[in-house]
Write a structure and sequence with these properties.
Layout lengths: L1 H13 L7 H21 L3 H12 L2 H17 L9 H19 L3 H5 L4 H4 L6 H10 L2 H10 L2 H12 L4 H8 L3 H21 L8
Length: 206
């Protein structure tokens, strides 16, 4: 059976398209064009997709599993892609695949932790001291600090600070209001600041 399937694949690849029956030829090239469009849209963003999966799962193998699931889903539902911002579209699928994976791992408590956006909201102008701390911290401490953030905050920070998405794009990816995005980023930066100070990064300029 396997040898027959392989032979059929070779026959299709080597066949003269004009010699194929018209219905089969049209279906064959329609699928081939779809895969080509998928590759052009998705492949350039695989690194960003893996990075998001890795930061969310915090494990290499788990990130690979999530990314594999996301890519299968992306191919399956590619016809729903509107042709605008493939990166944000793919990251949305990665995020959703991660939460499905998380539920399967029975770690739902990390999803369901209470988080009051109004309590944690702070002024946008408070980010400058935190930005200075980020510049002072080494990469190892930053990685540890990011991984220590609660999941909703970690997700927002990765999408903003590492993937460079706009507030509007983050809101679309995470399916939350822009105000919630800003609130989570503010809280995440404050927690990251506290983490860095606790680990010896100095405030202020030398």
């Amino acid at each position: 059976m396997a040898s027959q399937a392989a032979a059929l694949r070779v026959t299709i690849l080597e066949a003269d398209p004009l010699a194929m029956p018209i219905p089969f030829r049209d279906r064959f090239f329609r699928q081939d064009d779809r895969r080509s469009r998928f590759d052009r849209a998705v492949l350039p963003h695989l690194d960003a997709a893996y990075d998001l999966a890795r930061w969310l799962t915090r494990e290499d193998q788990d990130a690979e599993d999530v990314l594999q699931t996301a890519c299968v889903r992306a191919l399956q539902f590619f016809d729903s892609f509107q042709g605008v911002n493939a990166r944000a579209w793919l990251l949305t699928i990665v995020r959703n695949s991660f939460y499905d994976w998380l539920r399967q791992q029975r770690r739902g408590r990390e999803i369901d932790d209470p988080f009051d956006e109004e309590i944690h909201a702070t002024e946008a102008g408070a980010a400058e001291p935190e930005a200075e701390l980020l510049r002072r911290a080494d990469s190892r401490l930053l990685r540890l600090g990011f991984e220590a953030l609660p999941l909703p905050l970690r997700e927002a920070m990765v999408l903003r600070e590492l993937e460079g998405l706009s507030y509007k794009e983050i809101a679309a990816v995470a399916a939350i209001p822009i105000g919630t995005v800003m609130s989570r980023l503010s809280r995440a930066r404050r927690q990251l600041q506290d983490f860095l100070i606790a680990h010896g990064v100095k405030e202020g300029r030398p």
